[in-house]
Structure formats: structure tokens, C-alpha cells
Amino acid sequence: MMQERSDEELMTAVMTGDQVALASLVTRHHGPLLGYLYRLVGGDRQLSEDLVQETLLHVLRQRTYQAARPFKPWLYAIATNLVRDYFKSAAVRQCWREGDAEDVLLHLYDSEPSPEERALAAEQGSEVRAALAQLREDYRIVIVLRFYQGFSLQEIAETLQIPLGTVKSRLSVGVHRLRSMLAPVQKGVD
Questions:
Q1: What value does the mean pLDDT of the chain take?
Q2: pTM for the complete prediction?
Q3: Which CATH number is 84's domain given?
Q4: In the chain, what are the helix, strand and coil shares in percent, each to the nearest 5?
Q5: Among 56, 109, 128, 159, which has the minimal tally of Cβ within 10 Å of its Cβ?
Q6: Would you say residue 173 lies in a domain?
Q7: Quick check: 143 and 135 in contact, CB under 8 A?
Q8: Exposure class string for 10-34: b at 16+ Cβ within 10 A, else e
Q9: Transport: present as a keyword of the record (predicted)?
């Protein structure tokens, strides 16, 4: 049985022009990366797709990838930086805050649960998304990487190029703030 190549091996092959290796990386990381970006940009599917494409273009254009560096944190660092660059524009930040967040939330899930379960899940999901959007970016990114992408604390530190202690602190503060924002909502449900 043939062993699957690691991300690092695939990226090394991509650097030599191996299109099959590139296709494997894209297949492996497109969905999770899209989900990560979707959460970071507040549920804008088109923007998320555009940022995934831009991230993958950056990967393809790389000529300095160091095989010793883990691929996944490196990939997510590129994506995170692209999101930060996008939101640096004051006009973009203002439009995003005033945008059609409710319209985006109406088209979220197409799953098999009953209509009531879907409505409740969408309502709870929209509350969590709204609370996440209110967090400072540094807390939001750590929370999304940890709880939605399943990154280890060390992978988050590598992705954001910050000390492990900073990751733990941001995660703790971010979760605490998220809980306090959602607490009034939870009490209303009980």
C-alpha cells in the first residue's frame, strides 16, 4: 500500500513544477481553508472563495518555501494575512459592518435535520457568528483556528508567528469574551 505524501513533500514537489502535487494540496486544503476564511470574514461566501483562490495563488508563486516549516500553519498564515490586508481599508470595514449580514445568514446550512432543527441551528449559528464578528481580530483568529479548524495551540503559534503563551492568553480572553456576549442569549433560551 502506498503511503500518502505529506503536505511538506507535496509543496517541495510543487516548487519543481509538479502539477499533480499542486492538485493534491488544493484537494486536501480547499474545503477547510474555505471554512476558516468564511468564518473570519463574517459569512461572505464569495469573498471567502476569492481569498481561498488568492491564498492558493500565493502558494503557487512561492519560490522560497522551506520544507522544514510545517505546511499547514504556513498556508493559514498566508490566508490570515490576506484577510488582514483586505480589512485594512476603512471603506471595506465600514461596508462589512453595515452589510447584508442577515441575508448571508439566511443561506447558511442545507442539511437533513427537520425544519425546526435547521431554524434553531441557524439562529444559534448566527448568534455565534455575530458574537465572533464583535471580537477583536486577534482573538477571533485564534478561536476560529482552534475550534473550527482544529489547530493545536502550537500550530496556531506557528501560523500567527507569536509565542505559545500569547496564543493561550488570546484563546482564554477570547473565549471568556465570547461567553459573556452569548450569556444573555443563552439565558433567554432556557
A1: 78
A2: 0.65
A3: 1.10.1740.10
A4: 75, 0, 25
A5: 109
A6: no
A7: yes
A8: bbbbbeeeeeebbebbbeebeeebb
A9: no
Cα–Cα distances in angstroms (integers) from residue 19 to residues 5, 60, 62, 75, 150, in the given order:
14, 10, 14, 18, 28
Q: Which grid coordinates belong to 167?
A: 496564543
Tens-place pLDDT, residues 35-77 = 999 888 888 889 999 999 999 888 888 777 777 788 899 999 9
- Domain range for 81 is 1-99
pLDDT of residue 41: 85
Which value, to the nearest 10 degrees, does the dihedral of the CA atoms of residues 160, 165, 169, 174 take? 30
pLDDT at 133 over 70: yes
In a domain, 157, yes or no: no
Kindly report the backbone phi and psi dihedral angles of residue 188, in degrees, each rounded to the nearest multiple of 5, phi listed first: -70, -25
DSSP string, 29-51: HHHHHHHHHHHHTTS-HHHHHHH
Please give the tally of structural domains in the chain: 1
Residues of the chain with pLDDT > 90: what percent? 23
Within-domain flag for 88: yes
